[in-house]
Amino acid sequence: MQHSIFIVLDGIDGSGTSTHSKLLAGFLSLKGLKIYLTQEPSNSDIGNLLRTYLKNDKIPASTDALLFAADRVLHFNNDIKNKLEEGYTVISDRYLESSIAYQSSQSEEISVEWVKTLNKFAGKPDLTIILDIDPKLSLTRKHHKVLDKFEDTSLLEKVRQVYLDRAKNEEYIVINTDDIIEIVQANIQEVVIEKLDQCGIQIKN
Ligand code: TYD
Question: Which CATH number fits domain 6-198: 3.40.50.300, 3.40.50.720, 3.40.980.20, 3.40.50.2300?
Answer without folding.
Answer: 3.40.50.300
